[in-house]
């Protein structure tokens, strides 16, 4: 046990005790009443009962009575810019929704993207997300430093962050959906992506900012960009991300254009591997799932967005049974207006129970695992985050489960997953508090709310005049 009586130089300690703990380790170890000791930015010890006595350099002691402590939630698919285009085209399927919204999205600029990122990140962080991601793929000509704006907003909020630097080079004139002025050339997209990786990607164990290479989707990107994007990622040693197998329309598009389904197309362009994760993966047959399992390709399951766009139900129980890494994503808030990851824990469970496996599809603990350890796996960071274990980074959330919304549910994990969004009493990222008593510590929520409203109105005005 780490009950060393002398300060070992690991940094100031934070002790959290008297709370239920779901570690989400390999054995799903839980404690009805336990403790976690954080030293610097790492978890030093986790166990039953009170923290060890005689700890030195304890800067803070938190009484977690009435709370559940879990790893912080990890979001694996999002589009921050959509925060200022929510609630539109609500009766559309994916392709019609994209066609309806691209003319608006093509007008975004740096101040809009900054405000949208601040709004998205604030909503994530105050709901228990400790690692956020943004798949940003709309870079209209002359729109400013959009990647820098998003990364800056993540730093301000205090969460760990992956920017999936997206791109599109298949505009309307090439049979794609986006307007031509909203897409980049192949050369520009690759050069800007490489520059973003070199400028911002941190490969260290406790990195706060990472960059992945993320062409948008098979139907908005040329085969050359898919292939060369994969080659670039492997040359630079970063991960790959895209949308895949989201709808029947996409499957049809791939058959018509490439003579094969999406998974075979991904394989043919170098896009299956343990350094790749894909959003959605709804329309997968058994051999597609086997190909993901064989190659270690990960999936970002986005149940609310899939329902909002009538895309279908991803086969999560089959993916998990095959050994495919699966995390959760909110997806962009133009197709999931709430923007909260907690909702995805609940909806992953509920929606999969409407699928083939019915009540055996997912349980509450599997849903929590998708939102924590599963997310760490698909981001390639399972050795660093995603579970409460000594040596891992101190990204953790203390959820209040003794209030009106949860007190009558005996099992705290069930209360967290199936109950209303539990209040976040304390969220630590890298050992540092980011949320206390439901409020963000580093961001003025009211100012962010005003900025998002103002920028949403400015975008609507510009789009209406275009
Ligand atoms: Zn998406």
From TrEMBL:
An example molecular function term from Gene Ontology annotations: 8-oxoguanine deaminase activity
Enzyme class: hydrolase
Keywords recorded for this protein, A-Z: Hydrolase, Metal-binding, Zinc
The Amidohydrolase-related domain, residue ranges: 69-406
E.C. numbers: 3.5.4.32
Pfam short name (any one): Amidohydro_1
Superkingdom of the organism of origin: Bacteria
Protein's UniProt keywords contain Hydrolase: yes
Gene3D superfamilies, per database record: Metal-dependent hydrolases (3.20.20.140), Urease, subunit C, domain 1 (2.30.40.10)
Xref: NCBIfam families: PRK08203.1
Protein name (Swiss-Prot/TrEMBL): 8-oxoguanine deaminase
Organism: Streptomyces typhae
């Amino acid at each position: 046990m780490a009950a060393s009586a002398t300060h070992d130089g690991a940094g100031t300690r934070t002790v959290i005790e008297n709370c239920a703990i779901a570690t989400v380790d390999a054995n799903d170890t839980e404690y009805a009443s336990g403790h976690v000791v954080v030293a610097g930015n790492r978890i030093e010890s986790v166990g039953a009962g009170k923290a060890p006595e005689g700890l030195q350099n304890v800067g803070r002691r938190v009484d977690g009575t009435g709370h559940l402590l879990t790893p912080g939630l990890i979001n694996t698919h999002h589009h921050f810019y959509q925060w200022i285009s929510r609630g539109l085209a609500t009766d559309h399927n994916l392709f019609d929704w994209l066609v309806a919204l691209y003319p608006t999205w093509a007008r975004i600029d740096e101040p809009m993207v900054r405000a949208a990122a601040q709004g998205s990140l604030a909503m994530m962080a105050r709901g228990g997300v400790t690692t956020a991601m943004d798949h940003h793929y709309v870079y209209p000509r002359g729109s400013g430093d959009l990647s820098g704006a998003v990364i800056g907003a993540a730093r301000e909020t205090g969460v760990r962050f992956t920017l999936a630097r997206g791109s599109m080079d298949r505009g309307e004139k090439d049979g794609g959906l986006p307007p031509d002025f909203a897409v980049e050339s192949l050369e520009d997209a690759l050069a800007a992506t490489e520059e973003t990786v070199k400028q911002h990607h941190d490969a260290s164990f406790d990195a706060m900012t990472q960059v992945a290479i993320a062409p948008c989707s098979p139907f908005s990107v040329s085969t050359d960009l898919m292939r060369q994007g994969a080659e670039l990622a492997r040359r630079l040693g970063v991960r790959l991300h895209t949308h895949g197998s989201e709808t029947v329309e996409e499957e049809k598009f791939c058959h018509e254009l490439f003579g094969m389904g999406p998974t075979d197309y991904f394989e043919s362009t170098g896009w299956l591997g343990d350094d790749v994760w894909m959003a959605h993966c709804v329309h997968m047959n058994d051999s597609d799932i086997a190909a993901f399992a064989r190659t270690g390709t990960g999936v970002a399951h986005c149940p609310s967005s899939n329902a909002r766009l009538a895309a279908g139900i991803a086969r999560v129980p089959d993916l998990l049974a095959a050994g495919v890494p699966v995390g959760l994503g909110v997806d962009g808030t133009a197709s999931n207006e709430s923007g909260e990851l907690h909702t995805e824990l609940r909806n992953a469970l509920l929606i999969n129970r409407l699928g083939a496996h019915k009540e055996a599809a997912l349980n509450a603990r599997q849903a929590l695992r998708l939102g924590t350890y599963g997310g760490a796996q698909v981001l390639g960071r399972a050795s660093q985050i995603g579970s409460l274990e000594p040596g891992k980074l101190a990204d953790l959330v203390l959820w209040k489960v003794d209030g009106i919304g949860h007190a009558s549910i005996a099992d705290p994990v069930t209360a967290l997953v199936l109950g209303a969004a539990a209040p976040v009493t304390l969220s630590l990222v890298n050992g540092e508090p980011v949320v206390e008593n439901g409020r963000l510590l580093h961001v003025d929520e009211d100012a962010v709310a005003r900025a998002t409203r103002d920028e949403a109105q400015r975008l609507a005005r510009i789009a209406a005049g275009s």
